[in-house]
Amino acid sequence: ENQSALAFCDKEGIECKQYLPHYTSQDGWRRHFGAKWSNIAQLKNKYDPHAIMSRGQRIFPLPSVPAAGTATT
């Protein structure tokens, strides 16, 4: 039911935020944070460049990891 209500609000252009958000994509988080998103992304990149924190929330994609035995330049 919650997803249905959120879909309706999105379709009708009604801005709303989830009290306990559980977005399944970065786009959902981007909409949640709105105008603050670019600042959040910059700070995340600066202070957590290896994406150690917040992995389970799917706010930011995990960094690419080279395959074993692959040399990086």
TrEMBL record:
<feature type="domain" description="Cytokinin dehydrogenase 1 FAD/cytokinin binding">
    <location>
        <begin position="1"/>
        <end position="60"/>
    </location>
</feature>
<dbReference type="InterPro" id="IPR016167">
    <property type="entry name" value="FAD-bd_PCMH_sub1"/>
</dbReference>
<dbReference type="InterPro" id="IPR050432">
    <property type="entry name" value="FAD-linked_Oxidoreductases_BP"/>
</dbReference>
<dbReference type="GO" id="GO:0019139">
    <property type="term" value="F:cytokinin dehydrogenase activity"/>
</dbReference>
<keyword id="KW-0285">Flavoprotein</keyword>
<dbReference type="InterPro" id="IPR015345">
    <property type="entry name" value="Cytokinin_DH_FAD/cytokin-bd"/>
</dbReference>
<dbReference type="InterPro" id="IPR016164">
    <property type="entry name" value="FAD-linked_Oxase-like_C"/>
</dbReference>
<keyword id="KW-0560">Oxidoreductase</keyword>
<dbReference type="GO" id="GO:0009690">
    <property type="term" value="P:cytokinin metabolic process"/>
</dbReference>
<dbReference type="InterPro" id="IPR016170">
    <property type="entry name" value="Cytok_DH_C_sf"/>
</dbReference>
<dbReference type="Pfam" id="PF09265">
    <property type="entry name" value="Cytokin-bind"/>
</dbReference>
<dbReference type="GO" id="GO:0050660">
    <property type="term" value="F:flavin adenine dinucleotide binding"/>
</dbReference>
<comment type="similarity">
    <text>Belongs to the oxygen-dependent FAD-linked oxidoreductase family.</text>
</comment>
<keyword id="KW-0274">FAD</keyword>
<protein>
    <recommendedName>
        <fullName>Cytokinin dehydrogenase 1 FAD/cytokinin binding domain-containing protein</fullName>
    </recommendedName>
</protein>
